Amino acid sequence: MHPIDWTIVGAYLSWVLYDGLRRSKDTHALEGYFLASRSLPWWAVGLSVMATQMSAITLVGTTGQGYSDGMRFVQFYFGLPVAMIILSVTLVPFFYRAKVFTAYEYLERRFDAKTRMLAGLLFLVSRGLAVGVIISAPAVVLSIVLEWNLAVTAVAIGIPTTLYTMFGGVQAVTWADVKQMVVIVGAVSAVVAVLILGLPEGIGLGEALQVAGSTGRLETIDFSFDLDETYTFWSGLFGGLVLMLGYFGCDQSQVQRYLTARSVDAGRRALLMSAFWKIPLQALILLTGVLVFIFYLFHEPPMLFNATHEDQIRSGGQGSEYASLETDFHDAFEQRRE
């Protein structure tokens, strides 16, 4: 990477770590560490809710989904606003007035400690497995960009996150999430702008979207009842509703967020903010994938995006075969352009 890139990454990580450690001064008490003393503003909690649901897998996988399949995946989130309204009326005031630290603490009050332990264990196991994937996915991409070993890259991602979480508690995590959302929205918007500016002269956004539409990638809503279709309006509305009720109502990673709000109304506003901003953000990320598809209709893509892997193949025993494939690939691209 360019030295400017390293400077930006270093400055950002230093800022996140410093701010997380600085906020650890207010986390000596149990409620301060786990619930930020119920003092966070609704907009910060709302951004944290969105950032917690989003990961590098979203940016990589959803963009790939838009590239290969278009905008249809956005239907998966159509049940989210309904779920958030239901939770705002029911579980947010319930958990807040119960004065619990976790979603599973109430299970011990209602049933017994064994029930709480089982629910907590299931959460920790599932979240631990998920975090492994969440870290390894961006590590694969960053290891290519940085030309680092994959394991070293994963450790480099995990250690700063662990430090500010361990010392700063949920308050540090929430404000780190706020920073992350600003970076994510800004970065995705910048990528969209670069893709549009990278189109050939005479090809504007309207023409690009017309081409995307001719391939079916702008077909966003499907009202059919076809059970063979994975993403339809109805599967997103009803299936997504059930999934979102379970995730935002029972998963501690989400429940803890709105328990840090200053009041019941603040918790409600945080969830509703996520409900109505999540779909446009997902649509923007999917659109990025669609624009990547259009971009590579006019610009020849590399056969392998991993330059290190490509160099290994060129210098290996299959170098001549790879060169022949590359020539065929170039000829096929030129024929398609004609």
Automatic annotation (TrEMBL):
GO MF term list: symporter activity
A Pfam family this chain is assigned to: SSF
Alphabetically ordered keywords of this record: Cell membrane, Ion transport, Membrane, Sodium, Sodium transport, Transmembrane, Transmembrane helix, Transport
GO biological process: sodium ion transport
Record's bilayer topology term: Multi-pass membrane protein
Xref: Gene3D superfamilies: Sodium/glucose cotransporter
Protein localization: Cell membrane
The family this protein is said to belong to: Belongs to the sodium:solute symporter (SSF) (TC 2.A.21) family.
UniProt protein name: Sodium:solute symporter
